[in-house]
Write a structure and sequence with these properties.
Blueprint: H1 2-6, H2 8-15, E1 20-26, E2 29-45, H3 51-56, E3 61-72, H4 81-97, E4 104-110, H5 114-122, E5 126-127, E6 145-151, H6 152-160
Parallel strand pairs: 3-4
Antiparallel strand pairs: 1-2, 2-3, 4-6, 5-6
């Protein structure tokens, strides 16, 4: 996690307005970062969604948000902070969707990370019918990932029900 926050990649992405990064700090020590998430925009072709969802989408490439990074410091894991951070990210995406088209939220999760997959599935995320290709291509040496999404209408319903 700390490597992410101090890394050249996230600094460059923020500096070039490619992503927006947010941190959660410890309430007793604002210098201690407990977790983080980052958001960007994307567009995914209708063909990747289910038939039911596809019928309701107007554009060939549907605008959405990406949760590009989401993590909790190992010292603070096991206290449902990942769920809390996910809720904050989804609420921010919902707010943005009222000002700029944003029909879904997408994220990548490591296939081996069963806890994270379970958390995202419980929040309403599901796998694409046919996963979209990553624009940047596969990075050598990176773990295998699964692409999940949730529609903004399901985000809205989940937020209204207390997620």
């Amino acid at each position: 996690m700390n490597g992410f926050l101090r890394g050249d990649r996230i600094s460059r992405e923020v500096a070039h307005f490619e992503t927006a990064a947010f941190v959660l700090v410890h309430p007793d020590d604002p210098e201690t970062i407990v977790g983080y998430y980052a958001l960007s925009n994307t567009a995914i072709k209708r063909a990747h969604f289910s038939n039911k969802e596809r019928r309701s989408l107007g554009y060939q490439a549907t605008p959405g948000a990406i949760i590009g990074y989401l993590g909790v410091d190992k010292r603070f894991q096991g206290h449902h902070l990942g769920v809390y951070i996910l809720k904050r990210a989804l609420c921010r995406c919902l707010g943005v969707s009222s000002q700029c088209g944003c029909a879904f939220v997408v994220l990548d999760v490591e296939v081996k990370n069963e806890r994270a997959i379970s958390m995202y599935t419980k929040a309403g995320f599901k796998e694409f019918k046919e996963p979209p290709e990553d624009e940047g291509g596969d990075e050598p040496g990176r773990p295998e990932k699964k692409k999940l999404y949730i529609t903004m209408s399901n985000v809205k319903a989940a937020v209204e029900q207390g997620l």
